[in-house]
Amino acid sequence: MNNPITQRGSLPLMTSVKDFFLKDKVFLVAFILAVISVIFGGFETKFFDYKVIFTVFGLMLVIGGFKSTGLLHYLGQALVKRSQTTRQLVRSTTMLTFFMAIFFTNDLTILTVLPLYLTITKSISDRRSVYIGAALILPAVHLGSSLFPFGNPHNLYAYSFFHMNNLEFFKGTGLLFIAGFIVLNLAVQFFISDEPFEVNTEVGTFNKLEAALYTLLMALMAASVFGWISYIIAAAITAIVILFYKPRLFAEVDYHLLLTFICFFLIVGNIVNIKPITELISSAFVGEHMSFLGTVLVSQVISNISSTVLISPFTNHGMSVLLGADVGGIGTVVASMATLISYKVIMVAARTEAKGFAKYFAYINTIFFIIFTLIGLGIVSIL
């Protein structure tokens, strides 16, 4: 006879497991492919990059901590309050996004800046400028986060996998970063009206002591990325401090992303043992230009993080893969998690105008995708 207590207890567990797998479609696909690869190929761990896993985990804890301090929201409010025209507001928002993404990753920056922007711009009559301003936040977050290895997960992976030295890394990302700064400002100047308006927002406060603590932890994690301290020690210190100070931050870590990395490590580990597939992929990414273009295009289908892990073992052109992933995040809805987050924020905060925002998101992303694909090809050609 079935035990009703056991049945009732097992249902919530099964539901939780189901929800966990269905919450992130990229992870779900990666998990299925990883299971298939393990069944037919074995449990290959030679492509596991433990530095990436430990470092991304530590950075997620720190970034979650910054979010809880209110510092990022404070910076956004303080900057936009000084704006007196639509163009000034959009420029301030775009540049805030661009520079904030250097340290706080795409996802947190989008979640901080975009809702604030949507709230402030509700009273602006020039909706076209408002739509374009929102759309510019997306390329700004990708181009800004491209500068440092710890700006986003795919940068960190490429930096680690290809054993790039700092000069080599910053030659490529620095040029992309400068190009991004110039093109974003030109876009604001030419496409946003200079209509006056008054910003009705109050600048709040933030927890200065906590902000100082997380700044120190961020510096510790950054030092581990550059190899100045062991990544295991840095991640352990960060985890221990947060465990005792604010343990709830562990629940905010994106475990789907960490598991997606592990799944792709398993997939790649088995793919390299299949000679026909290896030869096919390797032949498709011959030369710095094809490695760049391949990463850009594959990102449009499986996201820039997944494409970086998948393509890296089959080419020696690390800078091409790195820049391809940075540019590849600008494009389709699935090209990056930041893009998906942007659309979700729009649907929640501006559902009645979703079509208008979506239209200009598509326009701006397409324009920036074309421009920076050409710029990226130019950069890999001169490096």
From TrEMBL:
Cellular component aspect of the GO annotation: plasma membrane
InterPro entries in UniProt: Cit_transptr-like_dom
Keyword Membrane found: yes
Organism: Weissella oryzae (strain DSM 25784 / JCM 18191 / LMG 30913 / SG25)
Transmembrane stretches, start-end: 20-40, 52-75, 95-118, 130-150, 170-192, 213-243, 255-272, 292-315, 327-348, 360-382
Upper classification of the organism: Bacteria, Bacillati, Bacillota, Bacilli, Lactobacillales
Membrane topology qualifier: Multi-pass membrane protein
Pfam families: CitMHS (PF03600)
UniProt keyword Membrane present: yes
Domain Citrate transporter-like stretches: 28-314
PANTHER family: TRANSPORTER ARSB-RELATED
Alphabetically ordered keywords of this record: Cell membrane, Membrane, Transmembrane, Transmembrane helix, Transport
GO biological process, one term: transmembrane transport
Annotated localization: Cell membrane
Protein name: Cation transporter
